[in-house]
Amino acid sequence: MSDVEKARQLIHEAEVLTVLTGAGVSTPSGIPDYRSLTGVYHGLENPEYLLSHTCLMTEPDKFYNFNKSLYHPEAEPNVIHRKLKQLEADKTVNIITQNIDQLHHKAGSTNVVDFHGNLYDCYCTSCGASVPVEEYLESYWHHECGGLVRPNVVLYEEGLSQEAISRSVQMMTEAELVMIAGTSFQVVPFSTLIQYKRPDVPVVVVNREPIYLFEPHLMVTGSAEDFFEKL
């Protein structure tokens, strides 16, 4: 039996599947990653600053102009998102995603933790009101109170949501199989979630390049899109 066949068998047998997803799950939908030669960071001298709390508060124009480039409202869920939703028909599928593009939600997945937040969830930093993303993409000033509007994503210099952390840990502890898909799994603390799985729970990794993981795992090298097409 090939590694691909073993991975598929493990997925089909597990009653509780927890999936950790990264940029490689969204690139087939036309959303660029961050650090590749075609990614949004390419050619920028200090991209982390443009997505920092300091930039938001001190140079909101600069933050806003860069932040708007991250939006792809026309993007639709691809076969990976759709297959994960379909798997809910006969098992619990928990998804913890680094992605901020809401495509898992668009596909209809029930149990999703946006570990780094969601670009399409915007709010006013002054009055706290929720602001439709369409309004934010027209102006970052709240038309009702004049406050600064921002997306509810975790910027550099900011802490993660405690709710996202606690829900993610719970999803890891209840998993019968952990799958890591479309990520190099190097971003901390996202990558540290693996330590919360039970010791006997297997791990399947689907990624274009092998990842560095202390845990024993079944590595399927290739695109997540190809893997899920045949799942």
Automatic annotation (TrEMBL):
The keyword Transferase applies. The active site is at residue 116. It comes from the Bacteria. Pfam families: SIR2. Residues 1-231 form the Deacetylase sirtuin-type domain. Zn(2+) binds at residues 124, 127, 143, 145. Keywords: Metal-binding, NAD, Transferase, Zinc. InterPro entries: DHS-like_NAD/FAD-binding_dom, NAD-dep_sirtuin_deacylases, Sirtuin, Sirtuin_cat_small_dom_sf, Ssirtuin_cat_dom. Its EC number is 2.3.1.286. One of its GO terms (molecular function) is metal ion binding. Signal peptide: none annotated. PANTHER family: NAD-DEPENDENT PROTEIN DEACYLASE, NAD-DEPENDENT PROTEIN DEACYLASE SIRTUIN-5, MITOCHONDRIAL-RELATED. NCBIfam families: PRK00481.1-1 (NF001752). This is protein acetyllysine N-acetyltransferase. It comes from Vagococcus acidifermentans. The lineage of its organism: Bacteria, Bacillati, Bacillota, Bacilli, Lactobacillales.
